[in-house]
Design brief:
single chain, 181 residues, alpha/beta, two-stranded antiparallel ribbon, 19% helix, 22% strand
Length: 181
């Protein structure tokens, strides 16, 4: 795994999302934000996440999709249960993953963060393969970016979001990444 000068991670499957834009002037990625996602909810391995992040989610494919197919969201990275890494947005651009958010009194976390979606939910542990991929990804991102902290969506949007949830091993993620909270 190696971060290219173009902001794409070599070793990740690249699936460019239209749901991104330029970062605000002077904003560099300082925060790694961890999320969880599964589409349909609690089902793993399907194409729902890729379809959502590329605006191709078919509302007739599953009843849940009728309420989310119109969303325009993305994340920089998605780590599947088997550890497979997908990338949707180059790290130099702003992915639309955090929404209304604040970190240490600073609003609009999308401006200064990298979003990582873990395939999962709030109610199940994440896999060993996912933690290994997250560790390698975070170490490589630290080599090329001024990352200084790691947090969950639940921390930057408390009361609105709960992911990655109570099963996420924060101590391990901090130790593996070398990033503080």
């Amino acid at each position: 795994m190696a971060l290219g000068a173009d902001g794409w991670m070599q070793g990740a499957q690249q699936l460019p999302s239209p749901n991104c834009d330029e970062r605000s002037p002077g904003c560099a990625p300082e925060l790694l934000v961890i999320h969880n996602i599964s589409l349909p909810p609690y089902r793993y391995g399907g194409a729902g996440v890729e379809q959502l992040f590329s605006n191709r989610l078919d509302p007739d494919e599953h009843p849940y999709y009728q309420g989310v197919h119109q969303l325009r969201v993305s994340s920089h990275f998605f780590i599947r249960r088997d550890g497979h890494l997908l990338q949707f947005v180059p790290v130099g651009k702003r992915a639309w993953h955090a929404g209304v958010s604040s970190w240490r009194g600073r609003e609009k976390c999308n401006d200064f963060s990298i979003g990582v979606e873990m395939e999962g939910c709030d109610f199940e542990p994440f896999s060993e393969a996912q933690y290994r991929t997250l560790a390698a990804l975070s170490r490589e991102l630290r080599r090329g970016l001024p990352l200084s902290a790691i947090a969950g969506h639940e921390h930057i949007a408390p009361g609105r979001k709960t992911d990655p949830g109570p099963w996420f091993d924060w101590r391990r993620a901090q130790d593996d990444s070398g990033l503080g909270f």
